[in-house]
Amino acid sequence: MTCRERAGQVRDRYDEFVAAGIGVTAIGTGGKRYAQAFIEDEQIPFPVLLDEDGTAADIVGTNSLGVGAALKPSAYIAGLRSVAKGHRQRKTGRRPTQLGATLVIGPGDELLYEDYEDFAGDHADLDEVLAALD
Asked: pTM of this prediction?
């Protein structure tokens, strides 16, 4: 699943997140023009911040895509599924090997949920994210 696919899933369920009291923010590795095109193309209703130099990724401790992770069967299968759905890799940001994470941070900076990607397309299950608030 591509980041755009994932953003679309979150967009489609955005009302559920808001109803659960979750604020959603995406942090991307691309430049301002790329982010603006992403927001417009995908009709993103939540803020998209930029981490062009990797400072936020370093603080959160996200992984980077290595050759071994890219060759895992699970990564290959995720890629095939995305291609079969008609998705293609678009312009990458300045750090194309940067993997993502999903964090739910509660009041008082309490970390309620964390999921770090091990390969491209390894996104957190949205039902698990919502369940983290129960």
From this structure: 0.72
